[in-house]
Amino acid sequence: MRVLFYVFILVIIAAIQAQLISVHVIFRHGARAPVLNVTSEEAKSYFYRGLGQLTDGGIEQAKLIGKVLKDRYVNSFVDSRMLPTQLLFRSSPVERCLMTLQTVGSTMFTNATPPVQTMPRPDDFLLVPKLDCSFQIDEWALFFNLTDEERNKARKNPWFISDKALRKATSKSVTLQEKSEENLPALILEKEAGLAVPAWFNEEAYKESLHVFYSALSVMASVGEYKSAKGIRIKAGLLLDKIFNDIQEKIRCHEKKSVNRISCDQKKLQIFSSHDLLILPLLEALGIREEVLGKELPPEFLSAIVIETMLVDNVPFVKIFYRGNPREITLRDVTGLVRNCPPKQPLCPADLFTSCCGEFITADPKSECYEEPSKQSLNEWAMTPISWILFGISIVLIFLLIVMSYLVIRYKNRSVVTIKKVCLEN
């Protein structure tokens, strides 16, 4: 009897017509070389493209996710001939992100590579997390009890704070507390690449290093123990705002389409290539960071968030997926875990999803990050008790001045009238 019930449910689900109307994919770039330096000549030879650049392994990772996306969306959702009007491929201007997205695009479409859009790093508030906002320096000063000298260092080089968090986490680790001077980020990448590393950097040290490295990332990403709603908003708020607006616009378009038969194919597949410092706050805003990453672990290379918007019997719903491993070919459905979405349900009503994260959304992160001097001065100015006393005295003096002026004018007018009266009597 129970089997028949489940069969009945499956028949009902199969009968429901679901129409995919938009897809947003956000991923971290593929495997890269260490950003600052390497620890051996072997590593220098392996990372031959240079510090911070995409590796051959990263290119292969990009090809794999390109194949995953091709199998899922090309032909069935977008035209296999690669129509630029249907697509938006947007990347951070950093070369490893650009190379990753270009490789993904060329894998998805064999006859032509989609055009990749980007913009200069200082102007890119969509995919380049900003770390030099003045409020962040103030938050870090509280987290780490910074001296004035350290605040100045952080202002000139925000990664000074990351190094401070890394050392703090290392000192608390039983396995790594005597290795605070070691280049842990480089050793992690070298071990993952299969290169020779020091004997002490065994599997236990490697796993502990991932937690330590997360601590350095979390302070820059404004998540975890360093969580800051404003920090998340500056880093991921504009992208969230764009995605939610895109979804709402697509839904409105399809509502009109049913009446006017217009096309809603514009930019219906959007793919974004960015950094771990964007993936972390984005996951935090959606409320799924710990669920998909673990409590204190960083996102892996080419970890991806996939957001599908669909119409089910003309009612808009959203499904959210996560891909956590660069070798995975399946997507994990996390819809029921997302903030504001009904738990343990396969679909999330679009209106609930697009209203999930108000405190983390912004349409203008630049003005929030870099306040104009006049506005900043106004915000910093506050009325102290002495200020209120002086203000009150000023009001009283102004009032007395007005009264005295009135009395003087009135006295003069009476004097003139008296003189005229005397003259007339004479």
TrEMBL record:
Tell me, what's a Pfam family for it? His_Phos_2
Q: Which family does it belong to?
A: Belongs to the histidine acid phosphatase family.
State the signal peptide span: 1-18
Q: Which GO terms describe its molecular function?
A: acid phosphatase activity
According to the record, the segments passing through the membrane are 386-409
Keyword Ligase applies? no
Q: What InterPro entries does this protein map onto?
A: Acid_Pase_AS, His_Pase_clade-2, His_PPase_superfam, Histidine_acid_phosphatase
Q: What reactions does this protein catalyze?
A: a phosphate monoester + H2O = an alcohol + phosphate
The molecule here is called acid phosphatase
List the PANTHER family hit by this protein, alphabetically. ACID PHOSPHATASE-RELATED, PROSTATIC ACID PHOSPHATASE
For the protein in the UniProt heading, the enzyme class is hydrolase
Q: What UniProt keywords are attached to this protein's entry? A: Disulfide bond, Glycoprotein, Hydrolase, Membrane, Signal, Transmembrane, Transmembrane helix
Which Enzyme Commission number(s) are listed? 3.1.3.2
